Amino acid sequence: MDKLSSALAPALLLITGCSPSGASGASGQEESAQTTGLDAQLMTQAVERADAMAPLNSLVVMRGGEVLLTRPFHDGPPVSQPVNIKSASKSVISAMVGIAIDKGVFTGVEQPVLSVLGDKAPPTRDPLLQKLHIGHLLSMQAGLERTSGDNYGRWVTSPDWVRYVLAQPFVARPGADMLYSTGNTHLLSAMLTRASGRSTYDLAQEWLARPLGITIPQWPRDPQGIYVGGNDMLMSPLDLAKFGEMYRLGGVVDGRQVVPREWIGASWSPLTTSPFSGGDYGLGWFVSGVGRHPLYYAWGYGGQMLFILPDLQLTVVMTSDTDVERGSTHLGDLRELLTNYIVPAAESGGAWRQAKSGG
User: Fold this and answer.
1) What's the mean pLDDT when you consider all of the chain?
2) 270, 111 in Cβ contact below 8 A?
3) Fewer CB atoms < 10 Å away: N or C end of the chain?
4) Residue 249: helix, strand or coil by DSSP?
5) Under a CB-based contact definition with an 8 Å cutoff, are residues 161 and 223 in contact?
6) DSSP state of 259
7) pTM
8) pLDDT tens digits along 124-140
9) pLDDT of residue 15
10) Dist CA 60 CA 69 (whole Å)
11) How is 320-331 classified by DSSP, letter by letter?
12) Beta strand pairing status for 314-320 and 56-63?
């Protein structure tokens, strides 16, 4: 991947004030917002708008490390109850890969996939498979035929998910086009399991759940017992917000470096662009902006969203019904809720506090 090395080399600079595409403050803690709190009138309007968005189940807003709004909607579960975060899981898997590299479980983003999963490759293989590496999987530039979308059902009903992914034909060269595919992140889960000798679930407990003080229950596994990589992870909206806050703070929790700071900078550097949404994508994260504010986000099917705006010290989680139809306007509505209400409320600042949220 031509852009990958250049993204990793200056990653530390991203954490301390420089960022891609003219954005500033990729981790944000160095560049404080000029306002505090949230504008009460705008947040009242935000809650009213959210209440009219039937698929929305929860809204959590944190600013400067303080939880200012927690609200379930439309008979959704409490914000402390784990829910399916769908493909927002891909950003969690990315964090685990960064930790694995830091701990020496992986050698780096350019480690070949077949160095760990070689026995799962087809006997007669495309030579491009030898070139496939961890970075390609994270940035959705593997080049293999997708296992998401219309192909998802065939993949998850196959007897061996890892073998199925590696047997797909190359429709692009590794490092070229973005081809969003959950099979890519499932390969990462399989690699984590093989290389560490422990399940992805066990690693998630040690590397993320315990340091963050959050709950990550067991989630589905493939026929070989590999926990699904990049889909169907369970996390409460409040705990997902805590995960986002850790990223906003450069990977630090209570003075402990949980995710390497350089990894966050690299993950938030655009490497490719989605042909579906037009959004930039890094290592398991979408990269965008709201006005002049850099925006980094995890996106799960149906509207499971984690938004981080570092220069506003803002972390926002929205969860929704997972059966929202493709082509629905709901995702646009969620972005409008962020852009037209929550971000302006942070720009204005104010005295909105949890007591007013009713949550």
Assistant:
1) 90
2) no
3) C
4) coil
5) yes
6) S
7) 0.91
8) 989 999 999 999 999 99
9) 34
10) 5
11) E-TTPPTT-SHH
12) antiparallel
48 dihedral zone (left: phi>0; alpha: psi -120 to 50; beta): alpha
Long-range contacts for 330-337 (Cβ within 8 Å, ≥24 apart)?
Answer: 330/53, 330/55, 330/56, 330/302, 330/303, 331/303, 333/53, 334/53, 334/56, 334/303, 334/305, 336/49, 337/46, 337/49, 337/50, 337/53, 337/59
Positions of E strands within 211-285: 234-235, 252-253, 256-257, 272-273, 280-281
Would you state the pLDDT for residue 33?
A: 78
Q: Which amino acid is at 106?
A: F
Q: What values do phi and psi take at 298, rounded to 5?
A: -100, 140
Residues near 248 by Cβ (< 8 Å), separated by ≥ 6? 27, 28, 29, 308, 310, 313, 315
pLDDT at 352: 84
Tens digit of each residue's pLDDT (9 = 90 or more) over 50-76: 999 989 999 999 999 999 999 999 999
Backbone angles phi, psi at 91, to 5 degrees: -70, -30
Say yes or no to pLDDT of 21 above 50: no
How far is CA 97 from each of CA 15, 64, 126, 272, rounded to the nearest angstrom?
18, 27, 26, 19
List the helix and strand counts (H, then E) for the chain.
17, 12
SS3 call for 182: helix
Q: Quote the tokens at residue 39.
A: 């504008």
CA distance 280 to 138: 13
What token pair was written down for 236? 């409460």
